[in-house]
Design a protein that fits this description.
There is one protein chain. The chain is of the alpha/beta class and about 425 residues long. The protein has a single domain, classed as Alpha/Beta hydrolase fold, catalytic domain (Rossmann fold). About 40% of the residues lie in helices and about 15% in strands. The protein has helices at about 10-25, 45-55, 60-65, 155-175, 185-200, 225-240, 250-255, 260-270, 285-290, 295-310, 320-325, 355-365, 385, 390-405; strands at about 5, 70-80, 85-90, 95-100, 125-130, 180-185, 205-210, 240-245, 295, 345, 370-375. The strands form 2 sheets. Strands 2-3-5-4-6-7-10-11 form an 8-stranded mixed beta sheet, sandwiched between helices. Helix 1 packs across helix 8 (about 260-270), helix 4 (about 155-175) crosses helix 5 (about 185-200) and helix 6 packs across helix 10. The longest helix is centred in the middle third of the chain and has 20 residues, at about 155-175. Mean pLDDT is about 85; it is low at about 1-10, about 25-35, about 235-240 and about 405-418. Bound molecules: 2-acetamido-2-deoxy-beta-D-glucopyranose (4 copies). Keywords: Glycoprotein, Hydrolase, Lipid degradation, Lipid metabolism, Signal.
């Protein structure tokens, strides 16, 4: 057996830092001035806060949930093809189950690291946080070794076809409910749409899908400078032997000085869209502690394929393998009209990964779109759906309102999204 290769995260980070330095110095793109923390003595309160932030950056999701006073549970779910996934639960026995599914390079942590405040868990929901195969919580298999190559032969297609159905069936079995509520961010939407088009019987198991920054159609994303560079150089850069990516420690490099931290934040902004105004810089160490949580290289390649081809379709191999698998030269596109779950879409103008016009094109093709909401802030970016200082006011309050409107949820329904 070959030893699989893990792409050096430091190399990527180094590139980002370098590119950002270049942008900074050649284009004179000035970084917003934030008020410099003066060197005054830290108060007791600030000290406690700093300690708590350091702690949060190093706690697993279940411990984090427990720390903030919610009943946390860890569940293991085995998929049809043998992957053992971890789910985190903020338990509320008897309440409507709600599945929140994370995006690329993220984990269940994405929905909780910013701390609770007007949370879904406070609004009478039984919250389940999924973890897709390959991320740091879902690296186990009934017979494959996560250290071997075979384990990593999946893209987000398999997450949609195997992981989500397994998690949904598990939740329904444990709670004895017939249907769940669902929220996805980015790839959490991609995979949901894969599930509902490939296994339409799952449409009946979901009351409503709320899609934040759905990465589905991506024709506009091709103009993204980093993505373009990455797709052009992906094969030579990464090589086909690479199986796993982005499970690294940014913490050390980014945390070295104020300036490296600032450059790391700029590197993140370069990918997701720039928005200093909503960025909670104090929480950056917590973000670094939980991101990136690991993905298969094939997941990234699959996204690059849909960006380049402009088609939302399963993974494309060589012509001969495509013929063997799909009986066509190209994989047939997912049929979005088969997604009959009522779907509410949230998107934003400064999302460099999900362009508003792509989201609107997708919306038209959905089987049962019930509304779309463009976040009323022009700088709002791809990650602001989880990280923005005012995300509750800008997005979650709208979600609660939408939930309140479904006939299953009267009144002030809400959840521990964060
Ligand atoms: C993180 O937690 C582990 C134990 O869970 C501990 O051994 C380690 O020192 C901690 N690291 C930091 C940076 O706090
Ligand atoms: C929760 O939100 C309220 C209103 O925005 C704010 O005043 C309060 O400080 C927040 N609490 C925490 C713990 O973030
Ligand atoms: C992986 O799953 C098996 C059950 O199939 C279990 O015995 C083992 O402890 C798990 N390993 C890890 C690292 O969780
Ligand atoms: C997509 O599904 C709809 C509804 O079942 C069907 O009418 C249509 O022909 C399908 N489109 C394709 C391209 O298969």
């Amino acid at each position: 057996m070959h030893l699989r290769k893990v792409f050096s995260i430091k190399k990527i980070l180094f590139c980002f830092l370098l590119i950002n330095c270049l942008i900074k110095f050649t284009k004179l793109q000035l970084i917003d001035d934030e008020e410099d923390d003066s060197n005054e003595e830290e108060t007791q309160e600030e000290k406690a806060e700093r300690k708590s932030i350091t702690e949060d950056s190093n706690l697993s999701v279940d411990k984090l949930i427990a720390k903030y006073g919610y009943p946390a549970e860890v569940h293991h779910v085995t998929t049809e093809d043998g992957y053992i996934l971890t789910m985190h639960r903020i338990r509320k026995v008897g309440a409507q189950p709600f599945l929140l599914q994370h995006g690329l390079v993220d984990s269940s942590a994405g929905y909780v690291i910013m701390g609770p405040n007007i949370s879904l868990a406070d609004h009478n929901y039984d919250i389940w946080l999924g973890n897709a195969r390959g991320n740091r919580y879902s690296r186990n298999h009934t017979f494959l070794d996560p250290e071997g190559e075979k384990f990593w032969e999946f893209s987000w297609h398999e997450i949609g076809v195997y992981d989500l159905p397994a998690m949904i069936d598990y939740i329904l079995k444990i709670t004895r409910y017939k249907r769940i509520q669902y929220i996805g961010h980015s790839q959490g939407c991609t995979t949901f749409f894969v599930m509902c088009s490939m296994k339409p019987e799952y449409n009946k198991k979901v009351i409503m899908m709320q899609a934040m920054a759905p990465a589905v159609y991506a024709s506009e994303t091709e103009d993204h400078p980093y993505i373009r560079a990455m797709s052009l150089y992906f094969n030579s850069l990464v090589g086909s032997a690479i199986t796993e990516m982005f499970n690294g420690e940014f913490r050390f490099l980014c945390g070295m000085t104020e300036e490296t931290e600032r450059l790391c934040i700029e590197a993140v902004f370069a990918i997701v869209g720039r928005n200093w105004k909503e960025f909670n810089r104090k929480m950056f160490p917590v973000i670094l502690g939980h991101y990136p949580a690991g993905v298969a290289a094939k997941q990234v390649k699959h996204f690059i394929q849909i960006i380049k081809s402009g088609r939302f379709a399963p993974y494309s191999y060589s012509n001969s393998k495509n013929y063997a698998l799909y009986k066509e030269r190209e994989p047939p596109a997912y049929n979005l009209s088969l997604i009959t779950v009522p779907t509410y879409v949230y998107y934003s103008t400064n999302d460099l990964l999900c362009h508003p016009s792509d989201v609107e094109d997708m919306y038209k093709d959905l089987g049962r779109p019930i509304g779309k909401y463009l976040v009323p802030m022009k700088e709002f970016n791809h990650m602001d759906f989880l990280w923005a200082l005012n995300v509750r006011r800008l997005v979650y309050s709208k979600m609660l309102q939408v939930l309140g409107k479904t006939k299953h949820h009267k009144g002030n329904a809400a959840a521990y999204i964060q």
